[in-house]
Amino acid sequence: MFKKILFATDISKASDAVLSCGNGLKNLGAEEVILFYALGVRHIESLKFVLKEMAEPALLRQKKMLEDQGLNVKLEIAPGIPSEEINKYAEANNISLIVIGTHGETAAQHILFRIGGVTSEILHSHKKPILVVRTKVTEVNGEKCVELSCEDFDKNIMYVTDFSETSFRAFTYLEKMVESGAKKITLLHVQDKTRIDNHLKDKLDEFNRIDFERLEMRKKVLLEKGAEDVQIKIPYGIPTKEILDEAKKDYSLIVMGSQGRGFVEEIFVGSVSHNVVRNANISVILVPVLR
Predict the structure, then answer these.
(1) How far apart are CA 1 and CA 246, in angstroms?
(2) Strands, E, within the chain: which ranges?
(3) Is the dihedral angle over the CA atoms 243, 244, 246, 249 positive or is it negative?
(4) Which of 31, 128, 141, 284 has the fewest Cβ atoms surrounding its Cβ within 10 A?
(5) How much helix, strand and coil, in percent to the nearest 5, is found in the chain?
(6) Which fold has domain 4-147?
(7) Phi and psi (nearest 5°) for 217?
(8) What string of DSSP letters covers 171-237?
(9) Helix, strand or coil for residue 162?
């Protein structure tokens, strides 16, 4: 499944916390982890060496944290802009999964998710699946603490589909997760009221019947591959809101395609999947469109 993982670090406390997810990554199939740090400079050669020397002690400490969890770890330090270097390395080295941690109540509050930020740029250009691990920074007795839960990414998975080609590709990854031991799955499709209300409301029952049959077929596949509890849910409403509301229940992970139907529209208004990543209270795996 996700045998070769690139972990993008900014050597922050949030990154340290996500590094404790080694067992969770092993549950996703991790055999090798590339601990990846980009210096963020392009043209000033002397500055690259200074920054590398400053970052290396923290990176070696993080490398040992992963190794202590039984993972095979390789450290890579790249000179350039993080989003460019991460995607370039992932493509050139057959990376299975990119892992990035965020902190804050939601990812939307994280500086990396602001326009032009590293994670924002990766989300709009990644060619490999990406796992955004949700962390929460709290303050205890004046000290900042990072909270997260990642030992069991596969404990209770929500798979979101709009029946696009990309969401079907995400389903193939879900199948592999079930083959590797995931037992509890919810298949979610939202009937988009903004598309249905004006002219298609009278066809809603028909849409529900057709989509339920589609999801039943996928449920059967998952049960045959070893899943034990597969639920189907087809709410009616605004897709982003319905997904985020459902995510507040006892889920460990969301799996979805990073771009569904309406490619041109999503470029301008932001896709449902990207809005889910920015605002969900749990971790999300986004599977990209084939380019």
Answers:
(1) 26
(2) 4-8, 32-38, 72-78, 97-102, 130-134, 136-140, 143-147, 157-160, 184-188, 191-192, 229-233, 236-237, 253-257, 284-287
(3) positive
(4) 141
(5) 45, 25, 35
(6) Rossmann fold (3.40.50)
(7) -65, -40
(8) HHHHHHHHHTT--EEEEE--EEHHHHTTTTGGGHHHHHHHHHHHHHHHHHHHHHTT-SEEEEE--EE
(9) coil
- Alpha-carbon distance of 156 to 200, in angstroms, equals 34
How many C-alpha atoms does 195 have within 13 Å on its Cβ side?
Answer: 11
CA gap 266, 114 in Å, rounded: 17
pTM of the complete model = 0.86
CATH T-level topology, domain 157-287:
Rossmann fold (3.40.50)
Q: Encode pLDDT of 9-42 as tens digits.
A: 988 777 888 888 888 888 888 999 999 998 877 6
Minimal CA–CA distance to 286: which of 133, 143, 149, 181?
Answer: 133
Chain segment 171-202, per-residue pLDDT in tens: 999 999 999 999 999 999 999 998 898 888 89
- Locate the domains of the chain by residue range: 4-147, 157-287
Nearest-angstrom CA–CA distance, 70 and 167: 33
